[in-house]
C-alpha cells in the first residue's frame, strides 16, 4: 500500500473514531439531561402526567384562551419527558394523584382543587379577591404582598409537594391571571435546570414568579421573584 493511501485510510479511521466519540458524548449528555428532567418532574417515559385544567372564574363550563395555552404548555412539558398526557377538569376530579405527577393550573377562585391544595398544604399563602382597589388579586405570603398591576407586572405561585400516600408530586401553578398561569408553566418547563442547581430541595418548594410587561411580551418575560418555601408551608 502506498504511503498516500495509507494516510487516507488513517485519516478516515481517525474521522470515524472522532465522530463516534462525539456522538457517544452527545448521547450520554442527552440521557443525563433526560434523567435530571424526569427526577425533577417525577415523570418517567411512559408514565402519566395528570393536568388539572382550570375554568373561567365566572363559569365552570368555560376555559379562557390563556388557560388553554397553559394546558398546551403543560402538555408539551409532559411530552418532553416522553410521558403520557391525561387531562381532568378541576370541577370533576377527586382523590389523590397516586403515581401520576399532577400539574394543577389556576388560582383558587377558578380551580377548586387549587383552593384545596393551598388551604391544606400551603397555609402561609393567601389570594386576595378581585376588586377595584389597589390590592386586587394580590398574593399575600407572610408580611409580603405581591400586587397585580395591569399591563406592568403579574405574579404566580409555583409550588411542588407530595400528597399523603401518593408516590408522585403535585406541581401547583396559581397565577393572578390566565396569562400568568401560562407564564408559570413556561417558567417551569424552561428553567427547571436552574432550579435544580439553586433550590435547597427539589422535593418541596414554593416560589413566586414575576411576569413583566405582559401587554408587550405576553407570557415570555417571566423570572423568579422570591423563594417563599418556609413561609408558604408554615402552619
From TrEMBL:
Transmembrane intervals: 6-25
Keyword Transmembrane helix in record: yes
Keywords annotated in UniProt: Membrane, Transmembrane, Transmembrane helix
Domain of life: Bacteria
Entry annotated with the keyword Transmembrane helix: yes
Protein name according to UniProt: Secreted protein
Organism whose genome encodes this protein: Streptomyces rhizosphaericus
